[in-house]
Amino acid sequence: MCQPCFSGVMSGTNETQQQNTVEELFRKFSKEKNTTHVKIGGIIMRLANAFSDTKGVTGVEVFSFDECDRQVKDNLNAAIKKLKDSAYETLVSTTQDGVNTKILVKVKDNFISEIIIIVGGTDPAFVRIKGKIKPDDFQSIVENNK
Questions:
Q1: How many structural domains compose the chain?
Q2: Which pLDDT score is estimated for 146?
Q3: Structure confidence at residue 5 (pLDDT)
Q4: CA–CA separation, 22 vs 34, rounded Å?
């Protein structure tokens, strides 16, 4: 990944964060009934690093909403469309066949500290990848966590 891709994050803006930030989206919808949540970090990630290169990833968190009722999914899809968070650089924002997909990154000290993958539609999900990730390793991490 090239350095210009991070220029928006590095320059930053001081605009007031709008109502639909990443943290608010995660906080609100992670508490919904029938949400599946899997979190891997700490000891498990250190153990994984002993057997393979985790490319600087220190934690992975996945939220699946496919078992939630239709109203929750509709509210989530509406929130995904309105999502704006100046703390993250939007790398991908697309809608295909009614499914909104966003890939966001947070950069700190020329490393990616967080990758957020948000997928809407009938089987919505969030993936949060944390660590100290080299920009060159970004593509392989995204491909491995689709």
A1: 1
A2: 59
A3: 45
A4: 20
DSSP string, 24-75: HHHHHHHTSTT-EEEEEETHHHHHHHHHS--TTEEEEEEEE-TTS-HHHHHH
Residue 81's pLDDT is 87
pTM above 0.85, yes or no: no
Domain assignment present for residue 10? The answer is: no
116 domain residue, yes or no = yes
The side-by-side arrangement of strands in the sheet containing 111-119 is 36-41, 57-64, 125-133, 111-119, 99-108, 89-96
**Which domain does 102 fall in, by range?**
20-144
What three-state secondary structure class fits 14? coil
Tell me whether residue 15 is in a domain.
no
Task: Report helix, strand and coil shares of the chain as percent, to nearest 5.
Answer: 35, 35, 30
- In the predicted model, what is the mean pLDDT of residues 86-104? 89
Does 2 reside within a domain? no
Residue 16's pLDDT band (boundaries 50, 70, 90)? Answer: very low
CA distance 13 to 25: 21
Query: With 60 as the cut, is the pLDDT of residue 9 above it?
Result: no
Which residue reads 């790398």 in tokens?
A: 91
